[in-house]
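Give me structure tokens for this 142-residue protein.
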Amino acid sequence: MGSTLPYAADAESPLKPAELQVLRAQYEKEGEHVGVQTKFNFAWGLIKSNTRHDQQEGRRRECLYYLALGNYKLGNYAEARRYNDLLLEKEPANLQASSLRGLIDDKVAKEGLMGVAILSGVAIAAGVVGGMIFKGIGNRKR
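Here you go.
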């Protein structure tokens, strides 16, 4: 099974400025509806750059999103929110990150409600058992 991911050694050969500009233009042309492949290509082109600023921009764009998404899928919602919020600080109009924020918030709320329901159930069960024990002690005294 072959991989379409680039090799780390490929990062050592930077794109020509004109090639990077083509990737940037495609990214900007797609605007709010930028595709995953376009985002990856632009980020990879930035990472391959010789300038530190481009490298940091490329790393931030993709890594933060995928770290957030991976933590979300693993159920680590606090970490997912932290990475996603970092991305949204840099790119407030990022639709993917905004959508992921909604998913994270929904999961946290749902799991929070389940936790409350479980604790309520335990409290009710403890109350019933305690009542039965108390009633049993009262019956023995007679």
